[in-house]
Specification:
The chain has helices at 3-18, 37-43, 47-50, 61-64, 67-76, 124-167, 172-197, 206-220, 240-261, 304-315, and strands at 22-26, 32-35, 81-82, 89-92, 98-110, 113-122, 203-205, 226-232, 237-239, 268-277, 280-287, 320-323, 328-335. By secondary structure, it is an alpha+beta fold. The mean pLDDT is 93. The structure holds adenosine-5'-triphosphate and magnesium ion (MG). The site of adenosine-5'-triphosphate (ATP) has 19 residues, from helix 9 and helix 10.
Length: 337
């Protein structure tokens, strides 16, 4: 062996010794053959206490019994892989304390058999960081939930104030105006209510929203001969900036159908449909009532409800399509994502 080779071998040994992770070599019987400095520091044993011992001495008691089997399985199909396959791994120190570890295994064929080279990394700090991140994520989530809850509560207070006001109002037109305003506020509050109950906190399950909204509206307007017919795709979820204007549009359209399409107890049907067409979400409200009076152009009407509908649709980058041939039908198509 030349001088260079000797020097090189010494360097390899020194490098192993100085490696910034724990290095451990274990033979086929599970006996520790080589450890580096890092392993001594990590487990609190002196080298001579480890060499020749079974590697199970570093494995926590509760999983120690099954470890020789895992070891044999590794030797029967040796390949480089992380140890533990998704399980959290721990080592046990001389003082009995446990340390979370990440362990990489690599088989190495030598003259008299196969040994396992293991890298051992202490992941205590990583775990701590992860726990901190998870906690802060949970906190943000709670904060958002709380925020939606408060917005909803505040809107409800506003609605209650209007309701109170209408009880002190004798003029019937004013009472009706106050009630409409209350319903519009309720339509917005409902978005926030659904959001704080949702999993994601960012998207509203719009079919549930519409079911809720329309049931509220039909209860508020006694029209016993009018059937509400819902055809709602349950997979449509809208972000809050689309859900509020879309919700308000449906609020106006359904309110109009209930108030104007079926005068004098006339029977009929209001059909609310929610569907997806490619990247578009389609919402439509159709009734088979008396229809709008001829000459009324719903898209350019100057009255408050229809103006609100047109304005909101424009805000959504769209326009409402009207069909006033047989009853009244309005369709809104909104681009999502
Ligand atoms: N589905 C419908 N069937 C029959 N007529 C309708 C229908 N929707 C609207 N109209 C007519 O269009 C008019 C304007 O509607 P719009 O919603 O703008 O005002 P409004 O409902 O009268 O009042 P507001 O909505 O401001 O309380 C209504 O007064 C009604 O005559
Ligand atoms: Mg109206």
């Amino acid at each position: 062996m030349g001088v260079d080779q000797v020097r090189h071998d010494a360097l390899v040994r020194q490098a192993l010794e100085a490696a910034p992770t724990g290095m451990l070599v274990v033979d086929e019987q599970g006996r520790i053959v080589i450890v580096n400095r890092h392993i001594e520091d990590l487990f609190g044993y002196a080298r001579h206490e480890l060499i020749g011992q079974r590697v199970e001495m570093l494995v926590p008691e509760r999983v120690r019994a099954q470890h020789p089997n895992s070891r044999r399985a590794f030797f029967s199909a040796p390949e480089a892989r992380p140890m533990g396959a998704g399980r959290d791994l721990y080592g046990v120190r001389k003082d009995g304390s446990e340390v979370p570890l990440e362990i990489g295994l690599n088989p190495l064929v030598v003259d008299d058999g196969t040994v396992t080279v293991a890298s051992v990394v202490d992941i205590t700090e990583r775990r701590r960081m992860q726990a901190r991140l998870e906690a802060s994520l949970a906190e943000t989530e709670t904060l958002f939930r709380e925020l939606h809850h408060r917005v909803k509560n505040n809107l409800q207070v506003v609605a209650s104030l209007l309701s109170l006001q209408s009880r002190f109002t004798e003029d019937l037109t004013s009472v009706a105006v106050l009630r409409e305003a209350q319903q519009r506020i309720h339509a917005i509050a409902l978005v926030h209510e659904m959001l704080y109950r949702s999993e994601t906190l960012t998207r509203v399950d719009f079919s549930s929203y519409l079911r809720n909204l329309t049931s509220h509206l039909t209860q508020a307007t006694a029209q016993p001969s009018v059937v509400l017919d819902l055809d709602l795709d349950p997979t449509v979820a809208l972000p809050v900036d689309l859900a509020v204007p879309c919700g308000l549009v449906v609020n106006e359209l359904v309110t109009n159908a209930l108030e104007h399409a079926f005068p004098d107890g006339r029977a009929g049907r209001i059909r609310v449909r929610l569907a997806r067409e490619g990247s578009l979400v389609v919402v439509s409200v159709a009734d088979d009532g008396i229809g709008m009076s001829p000459g009324l152009q719903p898209a350019s009407a100057r009255t408050m409800g229809l103006r609100l509908v047109a304005t909101l649709a424009r805000q959504l980058g769209s326009a409402v399509g009207w069909d006033v041939g047989n009853g009244t039908s309005a369709t809104l198509k909104v681009e999502v994502e």
